[in-house]
Amino acid sequence: MSTSRERVLARVRAALTDVPADEPVVRPVERPYADSHGMGAALEVLEDRLRDYKALVRRVPADRLAEEVAAALERRGASTVAVPDGIDADWFSRTEAVRRPDSRDRPLELRELDSVDGVVTACAVAIAETGTIVLDGGPDQGRRAITLVPDYHLCVVRADQVVDGVPQGVRRLDPARPLTWISGPSATSDIELNRVEGVHGPRTLEVLLVE
Amino acid sequence: MSATFLGIPPFPEAARAAVNDSRLRHNLRKATHTIRDKRGAVVTELEDDWERLRSEGAAIKSHTLRHLDHYLEQLEASVERAGGHVHWAADAEEANEIVTRLVRATGETDVVKVKSMATQEIELNNALAEAGITAYETDLAELIVQLGDDLPSHILVPAIHLGRAQIRETFLAQMAEWGVPAPEGLTDDPRALAEAARVHLRERFLRTRTAISGANFAVADSGTLVVLESEGNGRMCLTLPETLISVVGIEKIVPTWADLEVFLQTLPRSSTGERMNPYTSTWTGVTPGDGPQEFHLVLLDNGRTDVLADTVGRQALRCIRCSACLNTCPVYERTGGHAYGSVYPGPIGAILTPQLRGMSSEVDEALPYASSLCGACYEVCPVAIDIPEVLVHLREEVAAGSGHLGEKAVMKGAEAVLGSSHALEAAQRAAGAARNLVPRHLPGMAGAWTDTRDLPDVPAESFRQWWNKHEKGQS
Ligand code: SF4
């Protein structure tokens, strides 16, 4: 393989003879663009964008989170849910739904993930302007597969995890972790370029915004 | 063996046939106008910041290209440090050999694929088929193209030339041959069609142990690969299999993680006209216990270094494949993608294909003429590629070269697309007036071509206004 490597690199160098040898390789990051675009209060904007994507959204006070988790699972008719094993057990103190814990060491079988009624996770960051929730595989978010295979994803977002703009979100995230950016339920624009919700990922995304 | 672009006639001929296909024109017009309006709304929403993001995006990409050797080596080191393997492919054949060998090593004969322009460009599916490996496309539009043994006609939505009724027919006729059949009584409601695709591919995702992808970006400092998508088929392929092979053009590199602050804003808004696409996945090498435990990155040259060597043409490598230039192009809207004879259609295809393939055929030489030079592509491009400038530059090359094609013949093709020579001339004059980037007099043979069409009276309205009016008058 090293011969192709050397060949490609040699061709690249030969193509760049116009570039002065002393031109700096590192480009200073000056960020001449905005961090965010002043579209309103973060939680309001996030809620608006999520609804625009046809996600279900509820604003909930912190002390009522367990009730709201229970109510959401009941509305959905979810009696068995996958959960990352580092999720806060208090969130489930009011629900009778059975939890199937998943972790990197003890992963659920794919078939089992395909048969649960949904998955409940926290998130790492949420971006208001674009209605985006980012999962980073942390202990309360779990392996990527658990939020992908079940058809219903209930995600708990804390107010302090919400930023206004994409640049602020990128800065909070660690690229070494596997990231999944979720902006609404799965969708396609492949038929006559119109957005239709619901293809391979969870067809229902429900978000509890905790204040 | 799936369809290939080999044997497609040069642009003027192919375009004439397409323009006469009224169903195709209807599908294209409807789709491109829908997306233009959506894009316009989410770009305007960012006000002045859009221009700043656009020039920053162009600057990042230009800088990367000027130091590409450095960033390639940095990317290689970062990916390997994170547990991935890096392979280098000088051309399509080599890339196909590498991928075939890697798939064989897994012992699998089925692979799932995420939509990727690079693997279409090298016709990987055909190479795998020759080795007895079946590649299943999982993106809805790619699936439609694969099932229909058709060719892609758009970068983002390869089946844009098909309406819902045609998609339904393809599903009913072909799904059973490839796997789970289409449900009886399938309607042409887009929801029903999406559901049919979900059911068709579900088992395949849960069972297949090797996946092939491309990437929208490869971050040199962190070794992170990035895939933007909508349906979740990308996540399925990037997460569930044991082995992941990503074929990525060497121009996809950005230097730092922070650079994504720009492109994760400009790409979704410019491509599907959304504030953000439903799913973006990023991964860095291998994460123990989460996702594929074996990751291979195949870095693909295949003509890119030739493009890099041309100081005018080089800017084409900034392209982030958003497809906005296709959606806004009056020529593309009339001809569709197949007429361009390559996986890269539209304005970007007209400058990228002949450069990648080295202007080696009549098809390639006709491509720089597949444009009215109106400049709409440049205006919408999120990395500010001056496509008209490169077109004019390539026309000069054609005119100066040995020449497979007469310029007159090429111009006849352009007339066929735009309706009349009068329309074309007016378009070009208006374009020159609207943006001073297209010089009124050009040196050499290209100069002779522009001179005869250079008239003193310049319309006051912009080309876009003129075009819109002209179109209304016709319909
Ligand atoms: S050339 Fe510009 S507008 Fe066209 S696809 Fe590439 S990035 Fe998008």
Summarize the structure.
Chain A is an alpha/beta fold. In chain A, 24% of the residues lie in helices and 24% in strands. Chain A has one domain: NagB/RpiA/CoA transferase-like (Rossmann fold, 3-Layer(aba) Sandwich), CATH 3.40.50.10420.
Could you walk me through the main structural features you see in this protein, from its secondary elements to its overall organization?
Chain A is of the alpha/beta class and 211 residues long. Chain A has a single domain (2-210), classed as Rossmann fold. Helices cover 24% and strands 24% of the residues of chain A. Chain A has a 6-stranded parallel β-sheet with strand order 1-12-7-4-2-3, with helices on both faces. A 4-stranded mixed β-sheet of chain A has the order 8-5-6-9. The longest helix of chain A has 14 residues, at 2-15. The radius of gyration of chain B is 22 Å and the shape is globular. Chain B has a 6-stranded parallel β-sheet, with helices on both faces. In chain B, strands 8-5-6-9 form a 4-stranded mixed β-sheet. Chain B has 475 residues and is α/β, with parallel strands linked by helices. The chains are: A alpha/beta (211), B alpha/beta (475). At the A-B interface, helix 1, helix 4, helix 5, strand 9 and strand 10 of A face helix 2, helix 3, helix 4, strand 1 and helix 8 of B. The structure holds iron/sulfur cluster. Iron/sulfur cluster is lined by residues 319-325, 348, 380-383, 385 of chain B.
